[in-house]
């Protein structure tokens, strides 16, 4: 699947291939997260909309995800094997055209999940209150909407980790078991609250390490049927919350998601540990389905360059801060 993004955020023209695992590296403020947010928003709008409502739902997503500031004149196109799937145009930060070149009953992704931070666990009680408020407004037909503002991406993943399906999904049993072994416990429902259960001890979420919370998100997503074939998982800079050893474990888990569970994954990172681990593990089993990109800031804007065949430039660029530090130690200006 080929995705082209033009004139959105800092991206003048970017094309990425999504065949299984797509890794996007680069410095801060080079559009890594923008790529994920755009694709996430298009998938959500496409899956929620019925006939002739796609622009309306896309504008809702622009408001929720981009705070109504996406592009003064941009476009996104998605195609698979030269077959157009979706084309979206923006003007003055509004969607003005949203064409889906596919039957309405068919979606190119059945769901999208965006993991921005594991700290969403710390907002579970807050979102529980928001949900009750929404339900009360619906029951009382209160036409005055809530004035509470919150990040939609957090809200979306909150719903995904707390809405427990009736039926079990045996296909993800091995995935859940693997995660529980890594964190030596699991996230469970106890007395209407989610806690981290380790042996006979129930630990409140506020007292759980951030790295454990990260794997806990994946555990609950798997249990709640949100990591399935034709689902897209977008992970934004997971290294911010993980020790290097757990970065390697996460990389192996991600490759397994693509290989065994047919989940599509986009991961943004500037961690050499994470990127090298993804390279090593993907080369073993999903090499042909993996693409690496580097976002480089140029005078014309951000250039998104595929570096799948040679990651040396990527690692050289990411190692520059260490070189500067070494020069400082040696007294070299």
List its salient traits.
5-stranded antiparallel β-sheet, 27% strand, alpha/beta, 6-stranded mixed β-sheet, 39% helix, 333 residues, Rossmann fold
Quick structural gist:
By secondary structure, the chain is of the alpha/beta class. It is 39% helix and 27% strand. It has 10 helices and 14 strands.
Topology (elements, then pairings):
Elements: E1 2-8, E2 11-17, E3 21-26, H1 32-48, H2 54-66, E4 73-80, E5 83-91, E6 94-100, E7 111-115, H3 124-139, H4 152-162, H5 173-183, E8 186-190, E9 193-198, E10 201-204, H6 210-223, E11 231-236, H7 244-261, E12 264-269, H8 272-285, E13 290-298, E14 301-306, H9 312-318, H10 320-329
Parallel strand pairs: 3-12, 3-13, 7-11, 11-12
Antiparallel strand pairs: 1-2, 1-4, 4-5, 5-6, 8-9, 9-10, 13-14
Helix pairs in contact: 1-2, 5-6, 5-7, 7-8
Continuous helix count = 10
Radius of gyration: 21 Å
Strand portion, in percent? 25-35%
CATH topology: Rossmann fold
Measure the end-to-end span.
46 Å
Tally of separate domains: 1
Q: What structural class do the secondary elements suggest? A: alpha/beta
Task: For the largest sheet, list the strands in their spatial order.
Answer: 7-11-12-3-13-14
Largest sheet: 6 strands, mixed
Q: Report the oligomer.
A: single chain
Secondary-structure element sequence?
A: EEEHHEEEEHHHEEEHEHEHEEHH
What is the name of the CATH architecture?
3-Layer(aba) Sandwich
CATH class, please? Alpha Beta
Overall strand count: 14
Describe the structure.
The chain is of the alpha/beta class. The chain has one domain (2-329): Rossmann fold. Helices cover 39% and strands 27% of the residues. The chain has ten helices and 14 strands. The strands form three sheets. The chain has a six-stranded mixed β-sheet, sandwiched between helices. A five-stranded antiparallel β-sheet has the order 2-1-4-5-6. A hairpin with a 2-residue loop joins strand 1 and strand 2 (11-17). Helix 1 runs antiparallel to helix 2, helix 5 packs antiparallel against helix 6 (210-223) and helix 7 (244-261) packs parallel to helix 8 (272-285). The longest helix is centred in the C-terminal third of the chain and has 18 residues, at 244-261. It is globular and about 60 Å long. The mean pLDDT is 89.
């Amino acid at each position: 699947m080929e995705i082209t993004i033009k004139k959105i955020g800092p991206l003048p023209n970017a094309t990425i291939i999504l065949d299984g695992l797509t890794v996007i590296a680069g410095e801060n403020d080079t559009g890594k997260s923008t790529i994920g947010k755009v694709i996430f928003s298009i998938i959500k709008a496409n899956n929620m909309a019925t006939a002739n409502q796609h622009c309306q739902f896309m504008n809702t997503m622009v408001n929720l995800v981009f705070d109504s500031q996406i592009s003064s004149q941009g476009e996104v196109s998605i195609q698979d094997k030269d077959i157009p799937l979706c084309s979206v145009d923006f003007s003055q930060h509004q969607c003005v055209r949203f064409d889906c070149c596919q039957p309405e009953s068919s979606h190119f992704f059945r769901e999208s999940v965006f993991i921005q931070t594991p700290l969403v666990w710390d907002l579970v009680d807050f979102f529980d209150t928001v949900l009750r408020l929404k339900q009360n407004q619906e029951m009382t037909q209160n036409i005055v909407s809530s004035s509470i503002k919150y990040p939609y991406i957090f809200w979306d993943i909150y719903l995904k980790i707390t809405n427990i399906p009736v039926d079990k999904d045996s296909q993800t049993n091995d995935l859940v078991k693997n995660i529980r072994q890594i964190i030596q416990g699991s996230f469970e429902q106890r007395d209407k609250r989610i806690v981290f259960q380790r042996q006979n001890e129930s630990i409140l979420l506020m007292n759980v390490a951030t790295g454990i919370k990260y794997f806990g998100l994946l555990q609950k997503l798997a249990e709640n049927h949100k990591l399935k074939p034709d689902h897209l998982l977008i992970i934004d800079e997971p290294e911010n919350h993980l020790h290097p050893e757990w970065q390697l474990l996460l990389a192996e888990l991600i490759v397994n998601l693509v290989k065994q569970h047919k989940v599509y994954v986009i991961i943004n990172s500037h961690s050499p540990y994470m990127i090298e681990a993804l390279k090593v593990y993907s080369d073993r089993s999903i090499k042909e389905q993996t693409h690496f990109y580097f976002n480089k800031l140029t005078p014309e804007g951000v250039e998104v360059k595929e570096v799948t065949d040679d990651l040396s430039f990527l690692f050289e660029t990411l190692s520059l801060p260490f070189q500067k530090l070494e020069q400082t130690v040696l007294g070299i200006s």
